[in-house]
């Protein structure tokens, strides 16, 4: 009893007194979490409404153990082998993956005999270029200098038509069948006949570079223009007095005007640059132009060149056709009496038909087969299913979950270069330029490049200097090398690179004597003829089926064998194979077989590598260790310190700098920033598939957390639908764009760097479509998963 007479009576009850747990040390956030966890368990124990637990018996333990042995696999019960320094646990790549719908247990039907090449030169001895109507000079040059003794099927059907007739033509044949020479040879032959008689003797008046411009060839990309020019220069060696040149975006316009002023007979150009020269170059006279060729016309329409094409066709047709040139050489009778338009494409789509309506008049549809031409003439339309991939091309589809995409790609490349000489050149197609840059930086070797050494045959010869244009686009590859291929070169190519770098990179990839890989976008999918390409990998599916046909057409060209591999995810994407037309069956493969084959031997991991405790000699553990290695590389700053530790150490510097600048941030890992940007661009590009294929590539079904693992990220970054719009404008729109920049880009999401030619002619993104895509993607980002806190 107290001195004042008050009595304090407290009822404690029968429960034991629980002491309050206190935590000391560590971060205050961790102490708060631990305190809340203890409080939660105490409240659970004090809840009277919760029924008491039933005591376990021996029968329950036996039943539980038997069920566990039946349903749980060793992979699912394996504890995590590593954890981040920050306390976050990195999940295994073999858990929580969706199950593939495709059946892989069906026995493969053995072919009675290998498929015959469908785009190879004809074997009939009677079929030669001389019999098709070409002059003896051109035929002998093709056989002696270029090694071409027999034409292909499309050349056999096209050359006589363009040599004898003056009608428009639409050439359609599968990739790698020789469509370029099919229209070049008749043009060169008829121009050459202005200077030569039928018996091969020279005429008194000889045509030269100042005799006039006779043909204009348009192509969608600069790389394709360069390739057409190279082929044309080889053909024109039989007539050195004829000159060809190219005008493309990214080149010096003054030098192009100088070449045009000196004189040119055949001009190869991109639509935007040709329109510019038609408006501003007065010496460009199109009065003698007899041929206008659109190579890969569907691609030009897709890239937004419709207005430029209309301008070109209008300006050429409105000029009066000259019957003789300035020197008095009569052109009628040898050259066509009218302007002939030729349209080339491997596929028939609405863009091509629209371009045909703009440029063609009473055109003849020419295909590789006479039967197909007769069938099309009767039906009045072309069957797109007839124009699929070459028959000798072997196609396969790898069904792999999103978390295993990156390690499966490395395993595929490692197994491809496991045998000496089995694989020389590989092309990997990726959807956007940001993703190309990231994968190039991730897969390239960190070791400095070796300096070139003098040759053993000529030790006194000067050592060639490295090309500065490919310093950032070519490097030695890591992870995919083997004892059979100790050196594998890696190249990257996309439309955001400057023209000099693009040209040098493509030339280096073509001339490389070592096994090499080209990581590129769709800029390399049209018309490029790179020799010895044995494998094409579509790491990201094409945005439309015709683009898929052009992609895989980079291999199996001119009768050569080739392989094409398509990556798809389990679920709705597996139905995409029903849209693909192929002369041979498309073989489905599960990722496990690729991983077992690729990781049968140990991987030489550069630092930072996993510790020795996790180095198990199984393909599954090697795949996990490789994924862990990629994630640690992204979280490691350039100086070798962990990125999270760098943030903590620089926290006080950030707080101090924030007083002076609102945007002050600690410097992080460049590779991590590149991975996040590549992830955002990939998700945006994923939403741009054509309407008919969007049911297979539904962005609402995409697991963003799992997809982040394929970029070496441990969680999906935010900001997919935000950012400023990057667009390229014409010079005439520069002033308007600068005035409206603040108002027009404030509410637009940043598009992915889905590739384009890089010229000034890129179209403007539709505001409504961009806004709808942003809303849809943000709704997906707000969905709950173990990787997304948003």
Automatic annotation (TrEMBL):
Q: Which GO terms describe its cellular component?
A: nucleolus
Record bears the keyword Hydrolase: yes
GO biological-process terms attached to the record: rRNA processing
| Catalytic reactions of this protein | ATP + H2O = ADP + phosphate + H(+)
Domain named Helicase ATP-binding is located at: 160-366
So which domain of life are we looking at? Eukaryota
Record's keyword terms, sorted: ATP-binding, Helicase, Hydrolase, Nucleotide-binding, Nucleus, Ribosome biogenesis, RNA-binding, rRNA processing
Note the InterPro entries from the entry.
Answer: DEAD/DEAH_box_helicase_dom, Helicase_ATP-bd, Helicase_C-like, P-loop_NTPase, RNA_helicase_DEAD_Q_motif, SPB4-like_CTE
Location in the cell: Nucleus, Nucleolus
Please state the Enzyme Commission number of this protein.
Answer: 3.6.4.13
Q: Where is the composition biased (Basic and acidic residues)?
A: 47-66, 730-742
Per UniProt, the ranges with Polar residues bias are 87-105
User: What range(s) does the DEAD-box RNA helicase Q domain occupy?
Assistant: 127-156
Instruction: Check the record and name the Pfam families matching this protein.
Output: CTE_SPB4 (PF13959), DEAD (PF00270), Helicase_C (PF00271)
PROSITE patterns in the record, alphabetically? HELICASE_ATP_BIND_1, HELICASE_CTER, Q_MOTIF
Where can the motif Q motif be found?
A: 127-156
A molecular function (GO) term: RNA binding
Instruction: List the residue ranges of the region (Disordered).
Output: 24-121, 447-468, 714-767
Query: Locate the Helicase C-terminal domain: which residues?
Result: 405-611
Q: What does this protein do?
A: RNA helicase.
Annotated family: Belongs to the DEAD box helicase family.
Q: Supply the domain comment.
A: The Q motif is unique to and characteristic of the DEAD box family of RNA helicases and controls ATP binding and hydrolysis.
Recorded protein name is ATP-dependent RNA helicase
């Amino acid at each position: 009893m107290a001195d004042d007479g008050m009595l304090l009576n407290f009822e404690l009850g029968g429960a034991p007194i629980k002491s309050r747990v206190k935590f000391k040390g560590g971060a205050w956030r961790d102490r708060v979490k631990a305190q809340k966890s203890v409080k939660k368990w105490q409240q659970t124990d004090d809840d009277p409404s919760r029924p008491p637990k039933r005591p376990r018996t021996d029968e329950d333990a036996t039943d539980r153990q038997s069920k566990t042995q039946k349903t749980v696999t060793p992979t699912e019960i394996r504890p995590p082998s590593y954890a981040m320094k920050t306390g976050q646990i990195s999940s295994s790549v073999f858990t929580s993956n969706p199950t593939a719908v495709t059946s892989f247990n069906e026995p493969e039907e053995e072919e009675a005999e290998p498929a015959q090449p469908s785009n190879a030169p004809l074997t009939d001895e009677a079929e030669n270029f001389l019999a098709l109507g070409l002059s003896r000079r051109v035929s002998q040059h093709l056989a002696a200098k270029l090694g071409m003794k027999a034409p292909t099927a499309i050349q056999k059907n096209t050359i006589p038509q363009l040599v004898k007739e003056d009608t428009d033509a639409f050439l359609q044949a599968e990739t790698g069948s020789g469509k370029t020479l099919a229209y070049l040879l008749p043009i060169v032959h008829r121009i050459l006949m202005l200077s030569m008689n039928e018996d091969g003797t020279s005429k008194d008046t000889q045509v030269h570079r100042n005799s006039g411009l006779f043909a204009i060839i348009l192509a969608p990309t600069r790389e394709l223009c360069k390739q057409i020019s190279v082929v044309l220069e080889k053909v024109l060696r039989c007539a050195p007095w004829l000159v060809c040149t190219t005008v493309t975006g990214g080149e010096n316009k003054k030098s192009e005007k100088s070449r045009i002023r000196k004189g040119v007979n055949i001009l190869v150009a991109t639509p935007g640059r040709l329109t510019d020269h038609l408006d501003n170059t007065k010496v460009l006279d199109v009065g003698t132009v007899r041929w206008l060729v659109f190579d890969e016309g569907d691609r030009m329409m897709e890239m937004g060149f419709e207005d430029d094409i209309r301008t070109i066709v209008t300006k050429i047709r409105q000029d009066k056709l000259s019957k003789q040139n300035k020197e008095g050489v009569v052109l009628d009778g040898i050259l066509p009496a009218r302007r002939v338009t030729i349209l080339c494409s491997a596929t028939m789509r609405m863009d091509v038909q629209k371009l045909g309506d703009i440029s063609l008049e009473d055109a003849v549809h020419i295909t590789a087969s006479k039967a197909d031409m007769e069938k099309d003439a009767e039906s009045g339309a072309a069957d797109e299913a007839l124009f699929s991939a070459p028959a000798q091309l072997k196609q396969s589809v790898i069904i792999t979950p999103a978390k295993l995409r990156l390690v499966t790609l490395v395993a595929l490349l490692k197994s491809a270069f496991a045998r000496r000489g089995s694989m020389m050149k590989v092309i990997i197609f990726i959807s956007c330029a940001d993703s190309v840059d990231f994968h190039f930086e991730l897969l390239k070797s960190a070791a400095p490049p070796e300096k070139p050494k003098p040759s053993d045959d000529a030790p006194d010869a000067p050592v060639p200097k490295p090309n500065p244009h490919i310093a950032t686009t070519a490097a030695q590859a890591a992870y995919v090398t083997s004892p059979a291929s100790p050196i594998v070169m890696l190249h990257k190519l996309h439309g955001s690179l400057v023209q000099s770098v693009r040209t040098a990179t493509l030339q280096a990839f073509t001339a490389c004597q070592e096994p090499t890989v080209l990581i590129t976008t769709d800029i390399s999918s049209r018309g490029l003829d790179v020799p010895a390409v044995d494998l094409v990998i579509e790491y990201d599916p094409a945005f439309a089926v015709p683009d898929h046909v052009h992609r895989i057409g980079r291999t199996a060209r001119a009768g050569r064998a080739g392989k094409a591999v398509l990556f798809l995810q389990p679920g709705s994407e597996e139905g995409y194979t029903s849209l693909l037309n192929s002369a041979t069956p498309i073989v489905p493969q599960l990722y496990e077989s690729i991983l077992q084959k690729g990781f049968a031997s140990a991987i030489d991991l550069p630092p930072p590598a996993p510790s020795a405790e996790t180095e198990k000699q199984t393909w599954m553990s090697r795949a996990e260790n490789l994924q862990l290695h990629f994630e640690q590389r992204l979280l490691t700053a350039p100086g070798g310190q962990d990125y999270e530790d760098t943030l903590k150490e620089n926290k006080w510097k950030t707080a101090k700098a924030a007083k002076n600048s609102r945007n002050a941030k600690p410097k992080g890992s460049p590779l991590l920033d590149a991975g996040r940007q590549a992830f955002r661009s990939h998700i945006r590009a994923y939403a741009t598939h054509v309407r008919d294929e969007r049911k297979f590539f539904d962005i609402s079904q995409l697991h963003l957390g799992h997809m982040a693992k394929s970029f070496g990220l441990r969680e999906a970054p935010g900001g997919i639908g935000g950012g400023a719009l990057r667009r390229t404008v014409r010079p005439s729109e520069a002033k308007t764009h600068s005035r409206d920049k603040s108002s027009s880009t404030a509410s637009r999401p940043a598009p992915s760097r889905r590739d384009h030619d890089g010229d000034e002619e890129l179209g403007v993104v539709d505001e409504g479509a961009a806004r709808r895509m942003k809303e849809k993607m943000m709704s997906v980002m707000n969905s709950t998963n173990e990787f997304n806190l948003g």
